[in-house]
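Workshop exercise sheet. Pairs work together: one partner reads the sequence aloud, the other fills in the structure field after running the prediction. Swap roles for the next sheet.
Pair: D.N. / O.F.
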Amino acid sequence: MIDYKLSGIDKLQTSDCYGAINDFTKAIEVNPEDYISYFNRGYIKAWRGHYEEAIHDYEIALELSPDDYIIYKNLAFVKSKFGDDLGAINAFTKAIELYGKDEVLYYDLGYIKERIGDFEGAIQDYKKSIEFKPFSFTTQQKIAFVKEKAGDYEGAIHDFTLVMDYLINGNHLGLGRLNAFYHYSLYMRGVAKSKSGNTRGAYEDMKNAYNCLVDDCNNTDEYIYNYLLENIIDCVNCDCNFISLYLRGVSKYKLEDISSAYEDVKNAYDCLESNFRKEFKIWGGFIY
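Structure field:
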């Protein structure tokens, strides 16, 4: 007799999604209490973007195995993708109650709270995540970013500085991916300084972010440019946005989106002139 659950797992591992779904469905028909097959079928459906169907399978799996935190974790992720943020928060919270030593659970819960504007709750969850994985400079950067969004500019400045100090003191710079975090923290610290009224400090940070990027742009891998495109784009509407425009332009140029890169760099230069010509001497030129 065919073991459809094992057959489904084999097909899943070879990316035969349709075959795997069929086998898991047959396994459920043979044993309606087979929560693993419900879970695995839900996993495939979620991966294929069929979130509502995935949620249905995960919820049945939980009825059959109510103390499995992994199912709650996956359910939370899918509910988040489906747009049910409150449901995602409840599922993450239940997963943490069952197994509270997974830093990813706290990070993902913080991310959802940040998205719905619960900045204080997000910061607390990000801090809890760091307790299980010290020192996570990526999570510390998220804390700083949330503080900036919440208007705690001094706190944001402090935390962005922590991230940069860690990267410098740990000799982590020189690696393209980590340089991206440094540039981003330096730039965002400048934004926080600007919003706190420290115009001179903002100018220095943004100038240094620019100079760092120019020094680095010909000596790094493609990862940094994809990272910048994914993370800087949300900052283009910030008050001091010329560095964001410039970084995005360089990223696009490196990824051969030449026309769009030119527009970003040109707009960055125009923004730079309008923001700083009255107070400061313009530095440098933009380099492809």
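Discussion prompt: The mean pLDDT is 79. What would you look at next?
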